[in-house]
Design a protein that fits this description.
Radius of gyration: 31 Å
Strand content: 15-25%
Number of strands: 16
Structural class: alpha/beta
Helix content: 25-40%
Length: about 600
């Protein structure tokens, strides 16, 4: 039977294609091919999705979800029985404070001292030391060093952010201890509900992003594999199995979500200040862990900085100066930096003095021992530090690069390009149009792959540790199967010219899926890495250049720039007189496939 008379390939699904679909697409072969998802990868992906969707609600592990109480604002403040003036401090502060809410959160701590502790080493132990008025520490040491046991000191101050009161603090010394009290006013019912609605909207938007930018494309891959061969190597394939990737990078790369989370953190500056206090002076391990998790929300400032950094580097054509950052590693670094590192570093008095001076730089006396402290400059400085973290990590943690023998000289790595000069090399991208080519012999089943035929950019090892771990957990075969991966053509283009990436500063390799291909007797024939086409900046590509592309078993399709395979691919071509650095071409997969091999 001639090839033009071959029947369409049967679909393994119960719902068959429409006659119009069957008329438009000519399938290869007539056997039924089974397509399935790897169950373990689906389970792990579901955990990732659950974590992403619930991320906006993580704040409630620390923030109280309440707004009404019959107790007066200062009526439940703990009073120290030692200083005779402590009650006066509270009463006077109640008269001076602008707060009118009725509920509050308290955090009180004390540190024992004695008359022989005349040393600057005492100050880092004082609770809330970075928030204390600048004269509190020197006055405390003066009293201890001069043995003035009756001249104890007390300070009370209101912390504001953009002139909006966010907390009240009281600190006093006795003959045996220094007491620090941090008070948060209870928010109104309207404010609590507005924050809840905002966070629920973020949850729903995350779900929408996951559906439209990832899972819809994963299902498209499933359908395409049911209708078309994966590639020209797929003759004789009986079964496909899909390992689903991790969509985390897609969520954190959304500018709307970054802005939404940053706004949420800014609106919760009061709880941020108290979380910092609990991290620096924890009352228990659980208290420290919960406060650290709450502070980890600040990683969204670093994610937003990566989005801005990409735009700046692309504007000046220096994308090769940076490397894509792992969102997991960045989140861990920011969390540790704001918790464990801060706890250890702020035990050194000189650093404590610097931080305290920055926090209290805008301190206004209200009267007597009462002050008003504007915390906005200190908060902005903290956010600026978080913006610089990904930039520093990007310079110190380069991505894995292919060895020199693996690729031709024209495809040398970004490191080689940078050593040759500071100018980024431009590799033009063409949308290839399939010209009619001579028919090639039909492909034959692949009994086993040769390790020499694999691609280093397609291997499991070309991921960060998080993706490598879940890939090993999901791998349906022995671990050496990872040595036989193919695909990854999009990464070879990115190595040549990083400007073709839609976002070069965030690592999206975890979003890739792996397709396991099996022939008869359930024998593994191929492991293909497929990447989302959305990662490739197609805008500005040269359209419809007539270039003959030889492909075994492939006939010219209805649309000239679409091949009859389930996924597309990127082809690299040698230098010419017009393109002295070489060029690249994109061939779309069937049904406008959003995946490239």
């Amino acid at each position: 039977m001639p090839e033009s008379a071959q029947p369409p390939r049967k679909s393994s699904k119960t719902r068959q294609g429409t006659p119009r679909t069957l008329a438009l697409h000519k399938y290869v072969g007539g056997d039924t091919i089974k397509v399935s998802f790897n169950r373990r990868s689906l389970a792990i992906c579901a955990l990732f999705v659950l974590n992403l969707v619930l991320t906006p609600l993580v704040a409630y592990i620390f923030e109280p979800f309440s707004w009404a109480s019959s107790d007066s604002y200062f009526g439940s403040l703990p009073h120290s029985p030692s200083p005779r003036w402590s009650a006066t401090v509270v009463v006077d502060m109640q008269a001076l404070t602008p707060f009118t809410a009725t509920n509050a959160s308290f955090y009180a701590m004390s540190v024992p001292i004695d008359d022989h502790a005349c040393s600057f080493a005492l100050l880092p132990r004082v609770p809330g030391v970075i928030y204390l008025p600048k004269d509190f520490g020197p006055r405390l040491l003066f009293d201890l060093c001069t043995n003035v046991t009756l001249n104890h000191i007390a300070r009370a101050w209101t912390v504001t952010a953009l002139s909006r009161p966010v907390s009240v603090s009281v600190a006093w010394s006795t003959q045996s201890e220094v007491v620090y009290l941090h008070v948060l006013p209870g928010a109104s019912e309207m404010w609590v509900l507005l924050k809840l609605i905002w966070r629920l909207v973020l949850c729903m938007y995350i779900g929408k992003v996951l559906h439209t930018r990832f899972f819809r494309h994963v299902y498209h891959l499933y359908e395409n594999l049911d209708l078309y061969p994966l590639s020209e190597r797929s003759k004789g394939i009986k079964r496909y199995e899909i390992l689903v990737g991790d969509p985390t990078a897609i969520v954190v790369s959304d500018p709307i979500l970054c802005a939404g989370f940053c706004f949420d953190v800014l609106a919760s500056a009061d709880h941020t200040l108290q979380a910092v206090t609990r991290v620096l002076h924890p009352s228990s391990t659980g208290n420290f862990v919960l406060s650290s998790i709450y502070l980890s929300r600040h990683v969204w400032f670093s994610y937003a900085a990566l989005l801005v950094l990409h735009s700046v580097l692309k504007r000046y054509r220096v994308l090769h100066w940076c490397v894509a950052q792992s969102t997991t590693i960045l989140a861990i670094v920011v969390t540790v930096l704001l918790s464990a590192v801060a706890n250890i570093a702020l035990r050194w008095y000189p650093l404590v003095g610097v931080v305290n001076s920055l926090f209290c730089i805008f301190t206004t006396p209200v009267g007597g021992d009462y002050f008003n402290v504007e915390a906005s400059p200190a908060l902005l400085l903290t956010y600026a530090m978080l913006w610089t973290v990904p930039v520093l990590l990007g310079r110190r943690a380069p991505e894995p690069r292919p060895d020199a023998p693996e690729l031709p000289m024209m495809f040398r790595s970004v490191t080689s390009i940078m050593s040759a000069g500071h100018q980024q090399r431009s590799i033009p991208l063409d949308i290839l149009s399939l010209a009619q080519a001579a028919r090639q012999p039909s492909a034959t089943p692949i009994p086993a792959l040769n390790p020499n035929d694999d691609h280093i950019l397609a291997k499991f090892a070309f991921n960060d540790w998080k993706q490598i771990m879940w890939l090993w957990l999901c791998c349906p075969r022995q671990r050496n199967d990872a040595d036989f991966c193919t695909g990854g053509s999009i990464y070879r283009l990115f190595e040549m010219d990083p400007s073709h990436q839609t976002l070069a500063t965030i690592n999206h390799r975890g979003t890739d899926c792996y397709v396991y291909s099996y022939i008869a007797a359930d024998q593994l024939a191929d492991v293909a890495r497929v990447s989302l086409l959305g990662r490739l900046a197609i805008k500005g590509a040269r359209q419809q250049r007539k270039i003959a592309v030889q492909a075994r078993g492939m006939r010219d399709s209805v649309h000239g720039n679409v091949q009859r395979f389930a996924v597309g691919r990127v082809v690299l071509r040698k230098p010419t007189e017009k393109d002295e650095n070489g060029s690249a071409g994109l061939i779309f997969g069937a049904r406008n496939s959003p995946w490239v091999e």
